Amino acid sequence: MSGGGSEPVARYDGELCAIVLAAGEGTRLRPLTERLPKALCPVGNVSLLDRALARLAGLGLTGPQRVAVNACYLGDQVVDRVGTRAHLSVEQGSPLGTAGGVGNLRDWIAGRGVLVGNADAYLADPTSPPGPDIAALLHGWDGDSVRLLGQPALDPKAPGTFDGHLFTGFSLLPWRLVRQLPPTFGDLVRALWRPAEAAGRLTVVPYRGTFYDTGTPADYLAANLHAAGDTSLIDPTATVTGDCHQSVIGAGATVRGTVTRCVLWPGATIGADERLHEVIRVDDDLTVPAADPSRGP
After folding, report:
1. Spatial separation of the C-alpha atoms in residues 12 and 217, rounded to whole Å
2. Residue that finishes a domain, picked among 197, 212, 227
3. Is residue 22 in a domain?
4. CB of 258 closer than 8 Å to CB of 274
5. pLDDT range class, residue 156, cuts 50, 70, 90
């Protein structure tokens, strides 16, 4: 396992590109993802996809020649949000998975190393602006091995760990392996990561910041509360005449009652007689409890 400081991305000009994986259905986050693809769900009033693109921009990776985004589930929404900021790879039918999504972009990758990030990864390093917190993945890379960003696991030998670490959303892949990926359904764990690990060609780079995969309502709420800090994060266009305690209030939302440790999506309304705790209010028809089942009743 190796760490290290950041290196200027200019070192990899013409040889490194980035992919944000945003095609998944987000089944564990339902019913939130019945309205929006997971990549567009807001955390701290900024969509996860926009956070990922900002992180790459912090590394100097911008534009459709250097950054690609794949889309499938509710793909039109992803396409509209990305616009001309990145190359778009729209998968037809069902999502191709992490390996298939990368394989479907082989012609665009065209011989370069690839920094691959999951759109649903919430990363926050208090010591760095967006971008440099993952620059350690690039430091001293040989262009031939596989690197994963990871944090120590509570059980270092648990399934799904790599060198005792849990994956935290970003990996660095060499072209020699990416060129072999077919544009068919598959995942990077089985297709590339485990074989590289078995061959002694996988390194886990430590990530010391905060990470949530936002895959469940509980983790999604936790990421939002982390973004809010010790107070409430209220969009300037929201109207708050009630009480907000450590909550995130979206654009155009209205709070007349009381919210504690909640997330309000843009345009959502809390009535004067409502007292909400640890929920996600999407609109008048959808309020999702964010209780963590592991806590018990």
Report:
1. 38
2. 212
3. yes
4. yes
5. confident
